[in-house]
Design goal:
Layout (H helix, E strand, L loop, with lengths): L15 E7 L3 H10 E7 L8 H9 L10 H5 L9 H10 L13 E10 L2 E4 L31 H4 L14 H14 L6 E2 L2 E11 L5 E3 L24 E2 L9 E8 L5 E13 L6 E2 L12 E2 L2 H9 L10 E4 L3 H12 L4 E5 L19 H12 L17 H11 L10 E2 L2 E2 L6 E5 L2 E6 L3 E5 L4 E5 L2 E4 L3 E2 L42 E3 L9 H20 L14
Parallel strand pairs: 1-4, 1-10, 4-5, 10-23, 12-21, 13-14, 13-21, 14-17
Antiparallel strand pairs: 2-3, 6-7, 6-8, 6-9, 9-10, 11-22, 15-16, 18-19, 19-20
Helix pairs in contact: 1-11, 4-11, 7-8, 8-9
């Protein structure tokens, strides 16, 4: 991403916004909805199947959920999110969904324009975020109705599409269209600033002379990273600019891309900042020799592009797919459906209980179980080393394997070709418990198994082993915000540490995080973050009388 040019100075007196949301995917859209005066109440015509929760809801049915005790309501709930408010909001919107039921929501939505919190949603493209960049013909993991946002039925916007009785999954194209239309239907457009790139988010502080200092920096140039910059200032003549809500004032800088690729810089002050950037910004890399070669890619869209441009076909050398998750499976299916040969490499054993395929019902996900069956049944059988079994074969032995395998092997069902077993899908070979040692400029890859090295000639490499968020606009890339501040932020391994019932960062008052950044990778659960943040901000800003915006969001 290009950075703000050095000579692009901020406005002399930037406007101050109560809330700036960075990211316009489903997280940002849902939060904008809740900040725009839409309030969830218990629908008196419904009964929640959880009797304990229903009894709690009945006791305070005159209050919107955003004004109730979320910790009390969430108590005792279990599910597939680590965040209790995510479980609460999910069961209110989709009661007993994990048991296969499709009960109606127990919420009704009312709009109170007096409860509107002025805010801006900054996104790199149009509302919908990364869903616009996904391959449009694949099917989502979640059911279509689980992808919907509050107040608008998914099927109402997709003409009631339902693929069959047991499989109502959606395509990314349908979902991205739903999110785009959702913003229009709910009148949220004025809150969204599209094609906007944030380049810097800093907490502002004042020194003795009134100069601005970045959060965590003293007037002596020292930086306090471990505590988020809120301690260590006393005695140094520095104080954070307080917004009255417990945190400092934030400066958000960046640019908006307009016609003719012109970059228009902007600068805003925000009392609260919400990180809703998702997790797809930075693909995880292998860190091996040759990963920067031009035939190595980290996105399945590059495979689709190569096939559509006829750079790959049934006569090409195999495509090397790396990874054992659903993205890698999607790449295998894409290649398989286009008669492109595949070598599939992954570190795990096919018996590993943590493989995602073992958590998916076969009836709902037949295509992924097809890939898993191929991973199990069409494995490459390594030749045993002739002497020392515990030592990998040296390169000279690997070169002899390469001489056999680099010519395009014509695999046939039931035959043994180049010591690879094949059955019903002759153009696919899996390599469990293998890793890539190196990639060479002559389009060859070197793979290492338990006791051997193998070399193959390939046409393309797809490294699909996950993604990490890119929080480059925060100090230290936001690492100090993580549950383990010594490690980079990772959605699975090291999410941002938040208060469980407000989603405010424990190390930065006034900074919130939601969605994959806090471990909620499914749309079904990230909506809980919107509920928690909206409830917190409504209480906080109501005290300051900043809920109504008469003039619109003309901040940029």
């Amino acid at each position: 991403m290009p950075l703000l040019e050095e000579n692009a100075l901020p406005q002399e007196h930037p406007p101050t916004v109560p809330v700036v949301i960075i990211g316009n995917g489903p997280s940002g859209i849902c939060l904008s909805y809740l900040l725009s005066g839409y309030k969830p109440y218990l629908d008196s015509s419904t009964v929640h199947p959880n009797p304990i929760l229903y009894r709690k809801l009945q006791e305070t049915k005159h209050l919107p959920i955003t004004e109730q005790d979320l910790e009390f309501l969430s108590e005792g709930l279990e599910g597939r999110s680590r965040n209790p408010v995510a479980l609460l909001f999910d069961t209110l919107l989709h009661p007993n969904a994990d048991f296969g039921y499709e009960f109606p929501p127990v919420l009704q939505w009312r709009r109170d324009k007096q409860q509107h919190i002025p805010h801006l949603v900054l996104g790199k493209g149009t509302p919908g975020g990364a869903w616009h960049a996904m391959e449009g013909s694949m099917l989502t993991i979640s059911l279509g109705i689980w992808m919907e946002l509050p107040g608008v039925n998914y099927r109402d916007l997709t003409n009631g599409k339902c693929r069959d009785v047991i499989n109502d999954r959606a395509t990314p194209e349908e979902i991205s269209s739903y999110y785009l239309n959702y913003v229009k239907l709910k009148g949220l457009q004025k809150n969204f600033v599209n094609n906007t790139y944030v380049t810097s988010v800093q907490k502002l502080c004042r020194g003795h002379e009134g100069q601005s200092l970045e959060a965590g920096q003293t007037d002596k140039g020292d930086v306090e990273m471990g505590n988020g910059g809120n301690e260590g200032f006393e005695g140094n003549g520095v104080e954070c600019v307080n917004n009255g809500g417990g945190g400092g004032l934030w400066e958000v800088r960046g640019y908006q891309q307009v016609q003719n690729d012109t970059h228009v810089p902007f600068s805003l002050f925000a009392e609260n900042v919400v990180l809703a950037t998702g997790a797809s910004d930075s693909p995880i890399r292998l860190g091996i020799e040759g990963e920067n070669l031009p035939f190595v890619f980290h996105s399945i869209s590059d495979l689709g592009l190569a096939i559509s441009r006829r750079k790959l076909d049934m006569n090409s050398d195999p495509v090397l797919v790396v990874g054992a998750g659903l993205s890698a499976a999607d790449a295998v299916l894409c290649a398989f459906n286009s008669n492109v040969r595949v070598l599939h490499v992954f570190r795990k054993s096919v018996d590993d209980p943590d493989l995602i395929f073992k958590q998916l019902p076969k009836t709902l996900y037949p295509e992924y179980h097809k890939v898993f069956n191929m991973m199990c049944s069409q494995t490459y059988i390594s030749m045993a080393p002739s002497s020392t079994p515990n030592r990998p074969q040296d390169v000279s032995i690997a070169s002899s394997v390469c001489a056999k395998m680099c010519p395009k092997p014509q695999l046939a069902a039931g035959n043994m070709i180049g010591n690879a077993t094949v059955s019903l899908f002759p153009d696919y070979t899996s390599f469990p418990e293998h890793c890539i040692v190196s990639l060479q400029s002559d389009m060859k890859c070197l793979l290492q198994g338990n006791n051997s090295l193998k070399a193959f000639k390939i046409s393309m490499v797809l490294v699909l082993i996950g993604t990490n968020p890119n929080l480059f606009f925060l100090k230290g890339q936001g690492q100090y915000l993580g549950q383990d501040p010594t490690k980079p932020i990772s959605c699975k391994q090291n999410p941002i540490d938040i208060h469980p019932y407000t989603f405010e960062c424990t190390k930065e008052p006034g900074l919130f995080a939601m969605g994959p950044l806090v471990g909620d990778n499914f749309v079904r659960f990230l909506k809980g973050g919107a509920l928690a943040i909206a409830a917190c901000l409504l209480k906080r800003l109501k005290k300051k009388g900043k809920l109504i915006n008469h003039g619109g969001n003309n901040f940029i």
